[in-house]
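Supplementary notes for students who missed Thursday's class. We covered one full example, reproduced here. Read the sequence, then the structure, then the short commentary at the end.
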Amino acid sequence: MIEKLSKKFLCDKHCKIFLFMVCWLCAGFYYSNAYVGASEGKVAVYTKDNVIVDCQGKGTLTIGKNIKKISLAKYIESGKASVTEFKVVSGNKYFTAVDGVLFSKDKSQLVLYPDAKEVTSYTVKANVKSISQDAFAYNKYLKSVTIPKSVNTIGYYAFQNCAKLERVICKANISSLCGTFYNCKSLKSFDIPETVTEIMDNTFAGCESLEVKIGKHISYIYDNAFYNAAVSFEVDKDNTHYTVIDDALCSADGTRLMFFPYKKQDIYTIQDTIININMYAFYENEFVKEITVNTKEFNMNILYGCINLEKIIFSDNIENIIVGDSEDVVITGYNLKNLKDIVIPETNKYYKSYEGGLYSADYKNLYMIPAGRDTLIINENVESIQDSCSGQNSFKSISISDNNKFFKVKNNVLYDKDITKIVIFPGQMTTYEIPITLNDISVLVNDFCTDFEDEGFTKNNSAAYNLENIIADKASSQFKTVDGVLYNKDMTELVLYPQKRKGAYAVPDSITKINPATFTSASALTGLTVPVNSTLVLNGCSSLKKLEYVEGVASVTIYGNWLYTGGVQLERLYLPSSIRYIHLVRIGDNTTVYGYNNTGEYEYDGNAIDSVKTYVTGLGHKYKSLGAAPKTVQNCKAVKNRSNVKVSWKARPQAAGYKISYVPDKRNIYKEIVLKNIVGGKRGSCTFKKSRLNGSKKILIRAYKMVNGIKIYGKPIEITCK
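Structure (token representation):
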């Protein structure tokens, strides 16, 4: 994968998912703005201060008369919006559309090309001087693009993630490129203009099919410009800054190794003339199988994610092997799941190899484990293990001498000496019996948190990727297991769900805490029932077809395919009538969402929607109603009379009753205090003690109906107590 899984963020305490939305709500309980233009074949847009700040749906996107700014990349990337053509309302002073493509009013700037326009080739018009940032981003159909000489600016990431783009003919008069073709996996040909002198951040990262030709004027290439890219490199003979040595792109003097071709070959030797190696030279290369290192110093982080690397051979020259100084290693290990041998000459005085592992010369420090072996045999003198050991391994058994003072093996699992913490877990284990003394299983647990600024995986562990069943000792003070799933002792937290546990699973009602990544890679999970407000990251849940949230859940956020690493294909998603917040990202191509109408739902990013139906159909999903709540009550009044408050409203006979409530803290709008529950739709008033409002002046009134034995509440109306 192109994106690294090293983002840091805070843990979710179940209320953080509301923070951004609550800031919007402080001005009032309901939003005053909503999506405009929602219908089949059209993209609904949300505007603020004449700027399109959000959108959803597939089809034509119409730019209104007063719109002056638009940015769509993140909505298209998330699957929330997909544009087949642009149209501009007559009178707009900023934009115009030609053949469905969006331009500035004078047509000198190509602003946006529709991502879902079913055309395979496009030639930029001769009068265009600039191409905007993300202009062609995430296009699904284009195979070839021609850019004329009149273009003097190409914005950042202009063609990023164009899945089918194969060829770009570019005559543009530009001096640098930045992120331009990021993750264009099909790109084979791009002749870099002779005017270009700099290739900046991520320009060709992920272009794994590209034949690269470096012109004579290119003097600067950023460290990740060709990350996971290229089948070959070629450098102009007159270029004084770069050259090709043994198929790799290097500095002209041959001392710095810049990039090794992503798909070139499976065996490579790093010569002793190399003094410095770019951190992205081999990073996450899935094709290299054997590397020989002849340098004096080598940073093991350079090989992070080389998942098919089997052998690393060090020459006697090696004096310093740098290990463990990267965030990625802390998070997921080196992810060298097929590594079987690290070879060190016996004459080397700094390091030793033992049973394929890398050790210090005195064997006290184990720096790297050979994760691709069936059996891990650890030297008896080891005192510390610096490999994080959280990635996939092939171990069926692990052994260490009973004489070792720091570690102990029990039933093929490596623990600290007192068996309180798992150190290395064998990847082939299917059933795990937790020792009574154990209190730390962090090496097995995924972690994903939802800080709005930088959400992502903190740990994406896969050491227990074959685990089907967990058994905890009944006398354990830390853990409890039910049907092979691990919980904390009082059953309030779901600690670990085995990735290969088969069938459907219902989270117990007692659970109040679920880490978003709890079910990540649960490949045998077929159905899931969730009773708590939650964010779920469902990468790797390839068998999951049905997901149901129980009544009472107010918040639902689902990332079906975080960073495109292999996601879920839900067939049925059931939402409760109590839902007030919903955010769905890539949950499946053929998902049917079941929900209730007239309940007053809210959408992500603080933007109101009319209904769950509006939201999910805008994402391209099918929708089926489970029933409808009563419409909002009308003619409402709340009048103080000495020590009492009398509330009245126009009765709705079709309702089953009403709820009168208030919200004591606007920062948490879902914690209502109920003042009165009224049974019967014919009632139109009630009285309660004024003291119960605790100074609040705002009162909410909702009508409800009984649907399948469930109280389905309609949208509330907020009134001021006078």
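Commentary. The helical segments are 19-25, 73-77, 327-332, 612-618. The two ends are 60 Å apart (CA to CA). If anything here is unclear, bring it to office hours.
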